[in-house]
Amino acid sequence: MVYTDLSFFESVKSPCEICGGKRFKDEVLTYKLKGKSIAEVLEMTVLQALEHFNQPEIQRKLQAMSDVGLNYLTLGQPLNTLSGGECQRIKLASELHKEGSIYVMDEPTTGLHKSDTAHLLEVINRLVDRGNTLIVIEHNMDVVRNADWIIDLGPEGGSRGGQVMFEGTPADLKKAKQSMTSRYI
Questions:
Q1: Over the Cα atoms of the chain, what is R_g?
Q2: What pLDDT digit, counting tens, does each position of 61-84 carry?
Q3: Are 111 and 89 in contact (CB under 8 A)?
Q4: Least confident of 15-19, 36-40, 80-84, 87-91
Q5: Which residues lie closer than 8 Å to 144 by C-beta, 6 or more apart?
Q6: For 80, left (φ over 0), alpha (ψ -120 to 50), or beta?
Q7: How far apart are CA 43 and CA 137, in angstroms?
Q8: Could you write out the three-class secondary structure of the chain?
Q9: Residue 56: which residues within 8 A CB-CB, separation 6 or more?
Q10: Which of 40, 128, 150, 168 lies in the 20 to 30 Å Cα band around 184?
């Protein structure tokens, strides 16, 4: 792409006249992998690439992206076009194959649509099922209800908080009178 800065106007982005926006010289585009040029591969969605490639290493990485709900992304999509939630899910996808790690997630549902939160919970459960430990700082009650163990800090936020108001399971939190969170779980 060619970017043109027009002083007082928005920058203008237009395809390169030489490659037509494909990013590669014609001689590079003559090389094919399973009948597709590199430009055609980069235009594929994750879902299309899953169907196209059968190499185990490629399949594993694409499947991880699919598992976190990113089937619609194209392989060549620039990172600066992704939302914060999409970036978080890419980070999660890169961790799905690991075992015995400890992860700290600070409000991972921020900016996520409710359906994306369900995908996130599936990923969290998958990480735990593989022997990983997750420490999640979260206000979303769907995530809190899904926890094995909750530490509720309060009684309020900021300088009016910081005391342990409750520690235990979601079922026990429902009965905790001193916790504001218990009203919402």
A1: 22
A2: 999 999 888 999 999 998 889 988
A3: no
A4: 15-19
A5: 138, 150, 170, 181, 185
A6: alpha
A7: 36
A8: CEEECCCCCCCEEECCCCCCCCCCCHHHHCCCECCECHHHHHHCEHHHHHHHCCCHHHHHHHHHHHHCCCCCCECCCCHHHCCHHHHHHHHHHHHCCCCCCEEEEECCCCCCCHHHHHHHHHHHHHHHHCCCEEEEECCCHHHHHHCCCEEEEECCCHHHCCEEEEEECHHHHCCCCCCCHHHCC
A9: none
A10: 128
User: Which pLDDT score, from 0 to 100, does residue 67 have?
Assistant: 85
87 Cβ contact list (under 8 Å, min separation 6):
79
Separation between Cα atoms, residue 93 and residue 120, nearest integer Å:
10
- Compute the distance between CA of residue 35 and CA of residue 41 in angstroms, rounded to an integer: 10
pLDDT over 90 percentage in the chain: 44
Q: What is the CA 22 to chain-centroid distance, rounded?
A: 27
- Scan for tokens 């694409």, then name that residue: 62
The residue among 86, 117, 91 whose CA lies nearest residue 104 is 91
Single-letter code of the amino acid located at 162: G
Q: How far is CA 113 from CA 35, 83, 105, in A?
A: 37, 11, 17
